[in-house]
Design brief:
With 272 residues, the protein is mainly beta. Among the domains are: 30 residues; 117 residues, Sandwich (Jelly Rolls). Helix content is 11%, strand content 31%. The protein has a four-stranded antiparallel beta sheet with strand order 1-8-3-6, with no helix packed on it. A hairpin with a 2-residue loop joins β4 and β5. The longest helix is centred in the first third of the chain and has 23 residues. The radius of gyration is 50 Å and the shape is rod-shaped. The mean pLDDT is 75.
Length: 272
């Protein structure tokens, strides 16, 4: 012990203390002296960077790889409307049938949100368009299929037709008025005429309403010389699918003429 004491000098003691301080406090010294960008991924242990190690707002878009944020990474209700940029959700971002009625707020889909020709017939469920969904004046004749339009067609001749009716009643009738109708619809057609006798005492006449030559209605009347036919004329109504409609009459004797004749056709959806 005395030998050790004899060998201790001030220089030996101070050098020993210096070595101890370097070894014991070296790590703290080294950490405070690390330069910028001196710690890379190789220096980090697995799972070394925990949530507590990341500052708020430290991770920006540039730090996230494309496709890194999958659905499983998002918590419930994590993405609100304020998190979506304008036009950020396009058609390709939505899976088929992803947007149901319950996902759309009342009044959310305005006219400017719907592209031209975006809504075809296959997009509309049966019975979806009720009367409350149709604005006042929204449906005109041009919005209806041609066969569903309610339209009126008329052909008429006023005054005396200078054409004597065929006679006797066994002869083919004389056409006194015609009307061309568009094909493919359903029409309720009415033909009527007054008849006047210029000679004799009384006559009997028959009139026919025909569609492309096929009779669809007939009527008959008896009248006296110089008078319009009793009840003001003959009138008949039939149904047509379109085409040429004719009104034709014949008489039991000579001297009978048509007066104020007309054909009126109204297109309807269906005829029961």
């Amino acid at each position: 012990m005395q030998s050790v004491r004899r060998r201790l000098t001030y220089a030996n003691v101070m050098s020993s203390i210096a070595v101890f301080l370097v070894v014991a406090g070296g790590s703290a010294f080294a950490a405070s002296q690390l330069g910028k960008n001196t710690v890379g991924t190789k220096q980090l242990k697995n799972n070394a960077v925990t949530a507590a190690k990341i500052k708020n707002n430290a991770i920006t878009g540039g730090k996230i790889a494309n496709g890194a944020v999958t659905a499983s990474k998002l918590g419930g209700a994590a993405v609100g409307a304020s998190n979506l940029g304008a036009n950020s959700v396009g058609p390709t971002a939505l899976s088929d049938n992803a947007v149901t009625g319950s996902k759309i707020a009342n009044g959310a889909v305005s006219g400017d949100k719907i592209a031209n020709d975006a809504v075809g017939g296959e997009k509309i469920a049966n019975g979806a368009v009720t009367s409350t969904k149709i604005g006042a004046g929204a449906v005109g004749s041009t919005q209806l299929a041609e066969a569903e339009r309610s339209e009126a067609f008329k052909a008429e001749g006023s005054g005396l037709l200078n054409l004597e009716l065929a006679q006797p009643v066994s002869q083919a009738p004389t056409v006194i008025q015609s009307l061309a109708l568009p094909l493919g619809g359903q029409y309720v057609v009415t033909g009527e005429t007054e008849l006047i006798l210029s000679t004799g005492t009384s006559q009997f006449s028959q009139c026919f309403l025909a569609d492309e030559g096929a009779s669809i209605a007939t009527a008959a009347d008896t009248y006296e010389k110089g008078l319009l036919s009793v009840s003001g004329g003959v009138s008949m109504t039939g149904v047509s699918n379109g085409g040429t409609i004719t009104l034709a009459c014949r008489s039991s004797g000579a001297g009978t003429f048509a007066f104020n004749r007309q054909i009126v056709a109204i297109r309807v959806g269906s005829v029961n």
